[in-house]
Amino acid sequence: MRSTVMKNLNLLPILALASLFIKISGSISLRPVLTGPDMAHLSSRVVFQCIAPDSSLPVTYELMGDGGVLIDTVADLQGDQPASFNLKVTASSEGSYHCKATTGRSTGVSESINLSVVTPPSNTRVTSEPFPPVAYEGSRVVLSCSVTKGSHLSYTWFFNRKEVTSLTSPLLLLTANKLVMSNVAPEHAGYYSCMAWSRAQDTRFSSSSEVQVTVKVYVSKPRIYFYISKEGASHRGNVTCWSTRGSPPVNISLLLDDKEVGSVTATESLAAWFPVAMEPGLDMGLARCRLTTEVQELMSEPVTLEVVPVGGDVKVEVEYLYRADSKMAAAMLSCQISRGTFPYVSWLLNDSVLPSETHEDSHIQPVLSHYALTDRRQTLVLAKLSPEESGYYRCRSRDSYDDSGPWVESAAVLVRVTDWNLCSMPRATSTTESPPKVFMNTIEVISIAFCCLLLLMLPVGVGCVYKMFDNKQGHAHIATTNPTPDALPLSALMSQSGDEQDDTDWDSVGF
Questions:
Q1: Is the pTM for the entire model greater than 0.85?
Q2: Distance from C-alpha of 92 to C-alpha of 499, rounded to nearest angstrom
């Protein structure tokens, strides 16, 4: 009996160590796992789940917040069932969460999850710098996508309702919530909008309304033009000021002898018209146009408002045009007028008006298929030549503003077109005709250049050959007439050597 008690006493330390080992091993094996979102929208609901696999029952799970604050407790009585913690997200919900599991005397703590509270965007709008978004080409424009509330946001931009990316619009810089146009151009003008969005368990977005960006173009240097018209017995002048490029509105002024005589604000176009007093033959002053915008002031070149009536000598010059095969292709007749600011030109063939004077033209007006007028009717082009176009051509001119004014006529010039000269270069039949132009192809030009080069090289080659033969004959003559060096005294050799040196130097200079 006593021996049995002693044996039990000897087993007590072993049992104590075994119990401690069981407790330690149980505590080590209890490893809860916490799952849940790391981002959540404000006012949404989130669910955290905690489970300690292979733990003995019952298991108590506690969800802990920052600072060890207990949020909720759930007991698992069935085994291997995760504990769910359902939370409504508020602004104070952001922080770190972990789960504590307890079974018997064993306790385990999970890894932490950091929850970020995302505020969905609201009241999205586009702001600009400058404001309003109106800028001149080459300047800088910055658009910002602004929201009243929102966090963890991303942004998408749209130009004329098409998404803007770095690939589709390489000249536009997208950075954070801004769209930057560092060197704005007219093609950047249009309607812009943006969308702010955030993503957590789902995606929330807010879109802005469209904002129009206006890109103004700098106006070009103004131009000036004047015209005169006749009304009854009096005359009336008109000055036109215009610019070929720019964005209205612009202020257009007319200055006469450096004094402003008229001003117009053009809102739809870049042109203005000003009536002025004008009389043929009189100098009415020096006129200039001035264009003014909020950033520019430009002046046109000065123009003297003087109308010179048509007069003096009038003559016709004829120029024939040929193809590469030397066949006549066309004829060009030019009406040369000595003086006149606004001449009106009429052409006649064999004293018949050609073409009809009812056809007005400003640049080129083909009246018939083989006639064309250009240079304000001062040039007549016979585009198709046949014997029927032969005849006497002349031109006449008068002031374009006076339909009843006198004509000034040129002498007649004969243009003769035959079947023979259609296939060759005809001789000019008038002293006013200019030399014919022949258009050569590339092969003909190269051939002529090669022949010219050959002719230049021929005399040079002949000279070189002649010089070579001349030198050979001179050396042969010396070798034949002079005795050998062995038979001559030293003084004779020196004398001969000097003579040869003199001859050699003379030949070199002469060559």
A1: no
A2: 121
